[in-house]
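Bench notes, afternoon.
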Amino acid sequence: MNIEDHKLLIFDLDGTLYEDTDHFEYHAKNLQQKLPVDKQEAFWKEYQEMLEGKHSLTIGSVYDTRNDVILTIDPETYLVQEVREWSGEKWDVSQVQKVYSNKILLDFSNFVAIGDGWWLPFANAIHYGLTTDDTYDSYVKTKEYMVSEQFQLTITPGLNEQLREWGKERTLVLLTNSEAYDVNNLLTSLQLQDVFDEVVPSAMKPGQTEYHFTNMMEKWQVSSEETISIGDNFINEIAPAVQLGMKAILINSASADVHHPYVQVISSMQEICNTKSSEA
């Protein structure tokens, strides 16, 4: 798809404008230390299995915190297609239909979309008995670590220049679940603090994604055909865009085998930097 044919570009932040992953391990280690000693080894073993794709919980799945089970959902209808126990045992179809007959609400509390590397240690920690307060405390500490001298974000070659070039004739918007303070720090570290026409933090994606997309198109007076969503999370940024008739660019996701005329899959933002167009 030709990016230059579009007037509004909506970007995610984490995993999109930077692709470092060391902070996820830092987060996981913080959570591990909060657990009783007799659970720490098992927690870490399962986390490594998740990273290696050997666990039922994977990026792209949904974790039901109340029932401690792992769901596969249709990203367009939010209906549950498959349920697995934490151990991997699959539910039969009749049980799935009985317990999950209606579409689910991805609310960061009861139903958590495992959209990127932040959520693997979160779900693992909840499974082993930690609370959401425990996980949030670790998340805050990890964000602080990410802007400390101990951590250095990797700047994608050509990204700054390409965003500024696109911004000359297009509207650039940043839509992220990260909080404003974190966003400002990260953009400063990435030297992107003055690039975007609009920055929307605490966006509550995916629940509020469609709402934000619709408002942005109305605000900037563009059609869905003139708008692209760019992100690494299929549920958060790609499926809602397609449903609204927008185009989308999916970055290095576990859902990278998707085939849709409105979706282009790339391995990194660098793949579309310093090029005038990119053909899907």
